[in-house]
Design a protein that fits this description.
Blueprint lengths: L15 H4 L2 E4 L6 E4 L15 E9 L16 H13 L3 H4 L2 E2 L8 E11 L7 H10 L4 E9 L11 E9 L13 E2 L6 H9 L3 E4 L16 E12 L2 E8 L6 H13 L7 H8 L2 H5 L10 E7 L2 H4 L25
Parallel strand pairs: 5-12, 7-8
Antiparallel strand pairs: 1-2, 3-5, 3-6, 4-5, 7-11, 7-12, 9-10, 10-11
Enzyme class: isomerase
Protein name: tRNA pseudouridine synthase
Organism: Digitaria exilis
């Protein structure tokens, strides 16, 4: 069994050494500046790492520069790698932490999925689960850890993904939704938005809805959208889209067009026209990309067979439940 190292559960900052970079003291009050490393994501586990582990992760993306590793400012992947490095004493190349999707700056998640590898097995996952969450900032939480089959891959094994986009549709914004929903003071027409959303369903070339990527993101434009629902929840208008994959900023660009339809500035049948154009400039003429803070990666779905843990694996960890043996009112 891989033992847990002694851990400090205090203030936690992403370290360049954990993320694969180098540090030097800057002349701005002693803050660390980071040198960008050669590799931004390790995707090939070393042969001695025979054990693979799947995590389901939730995070408030407000303070982070998205999922994908970069040394400064820190990202979700950077914080997770740092926690795992402290616990396992493995470097990031051996951990081979890979996420299912690279959410952007300010985007949230409830069901992000990632995997990592280790050379030894764990008899119980509750300890490592508690240790990881103890090291992470409160905006990031690992909801679940389980053993994974060797052929499981968080990104390439994906069957579909579900995203939500939340719109607060009242004249005055609720401050408690300010970081988690886009505010539209215009009274939107949900019926028109539903009609427009239906045009996205099916297999299409979504070139018109993809921003230019600055990394090696998938640029194959043919994607399948299986459903696109528009649901009224009081002041919240929730857009839920499920598809086999999405291009860079595709969801936010689709939402932007639906917002214009909801404002009745454009008709619902504008959607097939923009799709057929296969030109991002055509969408830019009528709609700007929706802001990131209303977007959530809700779940990443896989075939049931590939999610079955290997024989003899420890039980899935959903976190410990703590109980008091008797009431102690120490403040009296």
């Amino acid at each position: 069994m891989l033992g847990l190292a002694s851990l400090r559960f205090g203030a936690f900052h992403c370290r360049a050494s954990a993320c694969g970079g180098n540090t030097s003291l800057a002349g701005d009050g002693g803050r660390l500046s980071f040198i960008v490393p050669e590799v931004d994501e390790v995707d090939a586990a070393p042969p001695e790492n025979k054990h693979k582990w799947r995590m389901v992760i939730a995070y408030d993306g407000t303070k982070f520069k998205g999922w994908q590793y970069q040394p400064s400012p820190p990202t979700i992947q950077c914080f997770l790698e740092d926690a795992l490095i402290r616990i396992t004493k493995l470097d990031r190349k051996k951990l081979c932490l890979v996420g299912a999707g690279r959410t952007d700056t300010g985007v949230h998640a409830w069901g992000q999925v990632a995997h990592f590898t280790t050379p030894s097995a764990y008899d119980c996952l509750d300890d490592i689960h508690s240790a990881i969450n103890g090291l992470l900032p409160p905006e990031i939480r690992v909801r679940e850890i389980s053993a994974a089959r060797p052929e499981f891959h968080a990104r390439t094994s994906t069957k579909s993904k579900i995203y939500h986009y939340k719109i607060y549709n009242e004249a005055i914004m609720d401050p408690f939704h300010n970081r988690y929903a886009y505010h539209s003071a215009y009274k939107l027409n949900p019926r028109a938005m539903r009609q427009a959303a239906k045009h996205f369903v099916g297999i299409h070339d979504f070139t018109s809805f993809a921003n230019a990527a600055h990394n090696d993101r998938d640029r194959r434009p043919i994607k399948k959208i299986t459903r696109f629902d528009v649901t009224e929840m009081g002041a919240i208008l929730q857009l839920e889209v499920e598809g086999t994959g999405f291009l860079y900023r595709q969801v936010r660009n689709m939402v932007a067009l639906l917002l214009q339809v909801g404002k009745e500035a454009l008709p619902p049948d504008i959607v097939p026209v923009i799709i057929a154009a296969r030109d991002r400039k055509e969408l830019a003429k009528v709609a700007l990309s929706a802001p990131p803070h209303g977007l959530y990666l809700m779940s990443v779905n896989y075939d049931e067979e590939i999610l079955k843990p290997p024989e003899g694996s420890p039980p899935i960890s959903f976190g410990r439940t703590h109980q008091l043996s008797k009431c102690k009112l120490t403040f009296y």
